[in-house]
Specification:
- The protein has one domain (3-218): Rossmann fold (3-Layer(aba) Sandwich).
- Helix 2 packs across helix 7 (206-219).
- It starts with a helix and ends in a 16-residue tail after the last helix.
- It has a 5-stranded parallel sheet with strand order 2-5-1-6-7, sandwiched between helices. It has a two-stranded antiparallel sheet with strand order 3-4.
- The longest helix is centred in the C-terminal third of the chain and has 20 residues, at 170-189.
- Mean pLDDT is 86; it is low at 1-17 and 225-230.
- The chain has helices at 3-11, 36-47, 66-69, 82-93, 151-166, 170-189, 206-219; strands at residues 24-30, 50-53, 98-104, 109-118, 123-127, 143-148, 198-201.
- By secondary structure, it is α/β, with parallel strands linked by helices.
- The chain is globular and about 50 Å long.
- Strand 3 (98-104) and strand 4 form a beta hairpin.
Length: 235
């Protein structure tokens, strides 16, 4: 199959728009509550890039009763639809647009018949628990980042988020953290730090973390003069 055919199949359109340059792809991993999503969002603002959380690729559990869906371990990397995730990251890394599935996190199902068009931009930030764990994603990255934070900090941040944004009780959050979140972090997420080019202290100030990443990008020539890769000049 030709490259064009593969791109069309992956993006869900017959003619996939292309950029005049390959995007810079950055992978950011870390435990739940480490601060990876906040850092990714800030980098996207600084670089006018695309934030690409891998959480959108959780498997569709519509075939299970609702009560059973909530018993699934969403901290297990096998709950992500890896082939689709890798195919769509590859398409964006080539400068093509994709049709990303829409996921209903309240019901743990894909939204049937609907997708979201994601256009390739100069910088693609792939962010998630398993961003460095999946070997099929690592070759796409120009820079691999791991956010390191102690369990106590991760738990407090997750507790605050889940109570304020998801209406959960402290007991529920603590039980889930001990039963699935911490064990999965130790088994899958923390060991993936070995693949990082840059390890950042997740307890540091956000502006300091952003500058650490920007400095590393400058060092690697990923921020260069205007016109190169379509990125802003290093300053």
């Amino acid at each position: 199959m030709s490259e064009h055919g593969t791109a069309a199949e992956t993006s869900g359109s017959e003619t996939a728009p292309r950029l005049p340059f390959p995007p810079v792809v950055v992978g950011i991993a870390g435990c739940s509550g480490s601060g990876k999503s906040t850092l990714a969002a800030e980098l996207v603002r600084e670089l006018d890039g695309t934030h690409f959380p891998i959480d959108h690729y959780y498997r569709d559990l519509a075939h299970l009763p609702l009560a059973q869906r909530f018993l699934e371990n969403f901290d297990d990397p096998e709950l992500i639809e890896r082939p689709l995730l890798a195919a769509q990251v590859a398409a964006l890394a080539r400068g093509e647009a994709i049709e990303r599935p829409l996921y209903d996190f309240a019901k743990h199902t894909r939204v049937p018949g609907r997708t979201e068009t994601i256009e390739a931009r100069a910088v693609l930030i792939v962010e998630g628990l398993f961003a460095l764990y999946y070997p099929e994603l690592r070759p796409f990255y120009h820079l691999r980042i791991y956010i390191d934070a102690p369990d106590a900090v991760c738990f407090e941040r997750r507790l605050r988020r889940d109570m304020e944004e998801r209406g959960r009780t402290e007991e529920w959050v603590r039980r889930q953290f001990e039963a699935t979140v911490r064990p999965a972090s130790e088994k899958y997420v923390r060991p993936s730090a070995q693949y990082a080019d840059l390890i950042i202290d997740g307890t540091g100030a956000l502006d300091w973390k952003v500058e650490r990443v920007m400095a590393e990008m400058r060092k690697r020539g990923l921020l260069a003069a205007p016109g190169r890769r379509g990125l802003p000049a290093a300053g």
